[in-house]
# Entry
Amino acid sequence: MSTNVMQPEGSRPRRKTRISYRAALGEALAQEMSRDPTIVVMGEDIAGGMGAPGVQDTWGGAFGVTKGLLGRFGRDRVMDTPLQESAIIGAAIGAASNGLRPVAELMFNNFIGVCMDQLMNQAPKFRYMFGGKLTTPVTIRTVYGAGIRVAAQHSSAYHSILTHIPGLKVVMPSSAYDAKGLLIASIRDDDPVVFFEHIGLFDKEGDVPEEPYAIPLGEANVVREGGDVTIVAFGRMVDVSVAAADSLRTSGISCTVIDPRTTSPLDEDTILESVAETGRLVVVDEGNPRCGIATDISALVADRAFDSLTAPIKMVTAPHCHVPFAPVLEDAYLPSAEKVEAAVRSIVGAARAP
Amino acid sequence: MGKTMIPLSREQLIQAYRLMKTIRVFEDRLAEEAATTAMAGPLHLYSGEEASATGVCMNLDERDRIYSTHRPHGHCIARGLDIKALMLEIYGRQGGICNAKGGSMHLADPARGLMGANGIVGGGMPLVCGAALAAARLKTGGLAVGFVGDGGSNTGQFLESLNFASVFKLPAIFVIEDNGFAETIASSWACAGDHVKRAEGFGMPGRRVNGFDVFDVYDAAHEAVSGARNGKGPSLLDVKLERYYPHEQGISDAMRLPGHVDWLKANSDPITLLRTQMLGKGEISEQELHTIDHDVDALIDAAVREAQSAPPPPLSQLLTDVYVAYP
Amino acid sequence: MKEGLISKWHLNEGDTVNQGDELVDIETEKVANVYESPHSGVLKRKVVPEGRSVPIGSLFGVIASKDTADAEIEAYVEQFESTFSVADAEEGGAIPEVVDVPGGYIRFLKQGQGAAVPAVLIHGFGADLNSWLLNQAALADSRPVYAIDLPGHGGSVKDPRIATLEDIAQAVIAFLEAKSLSSVHLIGHSLGGAVAAKIAAERPALVKSLTLIAPAGLGKEINFSFIRALVDIDRRKDMATALETLFYNPALVSRDMTMGVLNAKRIDGAVTCLRAIATGCFGSGEQKSILRDQISQLPLPVQVIWGQSDRVIPPQHAQELPGKIRVHPVEHAGHAVQLEKAGEINRLLSHFIDQG
# Structure
């Protein structure tokens, strides 16, 4: 380069283009923590070994997402905590209004019961109740979802409950690329964000740029395009829906699969425009059926795209029961590609010749 | 109390008197107005408890943060919040300190270090840990004070906060204002054990404080603040006091015996106690105190008039400030 | 890009087909396009029917001479499918790499190998190495081909101080040196054309031949509001509309093309760099560097290709160049002619480069 541009740099280590969802999340945290010294991470076993004589950074988080951060950033910024969700989440929220930018972890979204006051009555309401005078730039990472046989108290999907609450933003990445870009965006966002990581996606690989990037919250991703049906799916259900869409294509039924990526804010335009083209909607969510995100999307479309609809809206969700332990029962509980395909066929009519 | 207490200078005595008097007149005036006119929202009044807010807040500076309860007016005034803006907020009018979006139970002024009154009993305590954590990590030299009632002292959030603050040795002070009752339930029955012993159980110092005596409160708070600022970690003050009004205006207070409040006013009024001390020491004259009384009356009176005639907030405010940005 | 959908066959089995005839419409994640027949003969077999998606590398049709026996066609198809492995095709598929250069790093995609003089493909403003999606593989049949990301773009260094044509050209020269490429066929599109021309002017020994596709550098006019749109837009619908400016047929803008542009801009520093380059190269709405004279005097073969419906840089800039410079106007094509008329452009490129 000409001499009036940068001085030569040493070689930077390169990594392969495809990395896991877990690694993408960890990379987002590491890059953001390098950039902004007010970012701290806190949670149970977020490193591991605090106060114990053996190996530190024992786990790097229950799912390994935060492994390695302790070595780079130290105990002041990578904080193992006692097991007390109200204090952990509440402290993160309090610190956020006072100059830090915490990323706290709620190990399983089921544990929200313990700290629900902080996410229902505190963080989301400060800005509003206090007349715009408080800013709470906190990110709460949590793990949700079923499929790994840990049963009712560790497998729920409570994203819909938080979507209901004004003042919170709710993010659900379905791929490694989205995971990194959405976590960076969530951390940079000045509102409280709850970030739902699916328990079954940590090993899923994808192409992820090595450089930091932020995906705007409130922008859906269209994963498949097709003119016959619009499928809206969340989290791991995106892959389930894509499998259904690819199978349906061989029967001549082409589906658009939309991954909203964030439930709050919601990209309504992308969903409504797609239904205007296809006239049919299937919503896929692994939450329980009452008062869930599936009903929310369905009501939106019934209200604002009614004239475009040529068939009833179908929802594919878990049933109104809890996540069972026995593998055959848990597998029956979850939405599957077959169930999505059946829902599509029920509103498209007979399969068409290719 | 037996030990030598931190003496207050003349200026500090005057400041204490002014603050306590302002709180008293503010609250008594609200009670008066509520008796004759329908008020916009609930009122949980602080009269009788002034020594606690005053003694604690006089030890704080601009680096410090306080978190208050559904009974916050005393803490707000002691921290120096604008009287008019407070009154407008309580009346739900334009110009209220929270743009009329919060009301009496959710007063806040971060610029003056009041990070919010909380309508959830005990809900502010983890936030205190957070504010203290931020102060420690950012090395501001500041600390966080959480006021909580005897009711809040039994909540999970409060007890979790004691543990958390101790484990991380945070510059936090937990001030239990035990006014004898959580709504109608006596704290002597509802609180198992003893607050000071609970604090010590969590590995932090605790001190029982005479909440009728601003000198004792000031002294105890001074000790707690020094400890926090010098890296000694959190502490707890168990402040014993009583309120003159019911838990909430218009609600029954019949679980206290008839005549009890009158007896308190006659025998252990905190302002009378301070006044007596000040006059006794010869630090101040009756005339000076009378001038302060007159100023306070005028201030509160002007605030009430303004609040009663101020317009309500415009409807456009309904949807503002839910988020910083959305999307 | 993992799959392609055969969305429409234009011919039937048994039809005669000439090289260049439209054969199938293929949709991939990145772009939808017409695939032109690379050979003449008879379309003997449509292996993949309309509406079917198949992995990259799959056999989708067979063209043979008229009298080739059916049995031979069957055997060929069977042999191909029994040995075809998606994993091999994927693994064999090149992935972009990154090389450090003084002052930063350049991302590039290398396809092809061998001892022939390599080609280097340089994209235009706001684009990246995917500009050459329909061209690189064809060229790579006969030689190594490097498609690079310019600084500020794709996965290359995000340094807003690399803002002028000179800075960018120096960065590309640094890439050539880092990869020990001492003699290359340079092929540049739009701003990348001006970059290629600049390199040829400054370091002619490096450049075996120069192909300029709708290049900047031959005149001062440029559609600056398009440049500004590329910098400023962050919403998918608006970007899709803006990208239509690149084509004669606006239907060629796919959602994945749009997201590719947006995703590249979301990388930290990318927009700042684009803004700096827009200012550094196009200043107040006009091209800052006019290289007509230098290009006219280059001691090496030069060709210029231009879509006649170009709405970004006027095709008139190709007029009145010295006769030794070959000029190829392309009908019914816009600014992104190498995507819109890939077959024709690939023929022009191969023919020109093979000539030496």
User: Anything to note?
Assistant: Residues 112-129 of chain A form the longest helix (18 residues). Residues 288 and 318 of chain A are 5 Å apart (CA to CA). Chain A has eleven helices and 14 strands.
